[in-house]
Amino acid sequence: MDKSILPLGKLPPELAVKLLQNAPLLDPRVIIGPGVGLDCAVITLGDTCLVMKSDPITFASEDIGWYAVQICANDIATTGAVPRWFLSTLLLPEGKTTPDMVERIAEQIFQACREKNISVVGGHTEITYNLDRPILMGTMIGEVPTDQLITPKGAKAGNRLLLTKGVPIEGTAIIAKEFPEKVRNLLGEDAQQNAADYIHNPGISVFLDAQFAIQAGHITAMHDPTEGGLAAALWEMATACGHTLVIQPHNIEIAELSEKLCRAFKLDPLATIASGALLMAVTAEDSRAVCIALEKHGIPCSEIGYIETGDVQVYSETANERTTLPWPQRDEITRLFES
Description:
Blueprint: H1 13-20, E1 30-32, E2 41-44, E3 48-57, H2 64-77, E4 82-93, H3 99-115, E5 119-128, E6 135-145, E7 160-164, H4 169-178, H5 180-187, H6 189-196, H7 207-216, E8 219-223, H8 229-241, E9 244-247, H9 256-264, E10 279-282, H10 287-296, E11 301-308, E12 313-317, E13 322-324
Parallel strand pairs: 4-5, 9-12
Antiparallel strand pairs: 1-2, 2-3, 3-6, 4-6, 7-10, 7-11, 8-10, 9-11, 12-13
Helix pairs in contact: 2-3, 2-7, 4-6, 4-9, 5-6, 7-10
């Protein structure tokens, strides 16, 4: 029996695979169940599929209600589905919770759902022993016509890999919001404020990115890079589709401010939480059209690599060599929260 202590963040990939092998899937209507790289469950109801996603907000402490809706809606959008219903479980700290705090978080949820035409249909709220901050877990349910469902399993050899906006957008905002004094001391007041605003500009939502891309070309798979950043997302997509992914790192957009923050905090920008970017697999003939369409809507998009036949693997390719891109065992940002 292994009694070693696990670090902060997602479970190590090998442990996640081991656990999920025992998950019971007893209903034949479940067409996508739990699995590495499969962020959403999918249940078929004939011509329509229900798409379900559950996620906690753990690294961010400000605007967590708004955060939860965006993060869950992102994953729903990667399947081509429209988010419809939202439930939340809000755990609040003993001795610190006020009615104002509860009302503020609730209104964040309600306003974010109003903006996306999502109904809040239930959940649970309680004050919980031994917490030092609020923890919010959201569950989003969406729907999509069965013949329009997109999953990470759909990526195929010959597809091109596209990335919107750049990385790590969410990581940049979290660092600036959770460690403002240190960022100000390192990079100045303006840099701290600009980095904190990354949550809204360029923004952590990929809802529109996914919609515009689907309208412009044949998207075979989409993935929202969250914990573990782009590197983990690439490995998760490779695992889901069963192919080899090859990226060209010089084509990956890393904003100057993000690069400075990651360097100052000694973080790998490719392995830092990266909501706000959308990773897509698209047919080769449609790659350019999708990039152009997104650019027309003010969403930067670039081709960062391709998929080829082979074992589950992710390579980083330059003009001179091809090396394995490491699969992060945890998100880089978790190190900043360790005591």
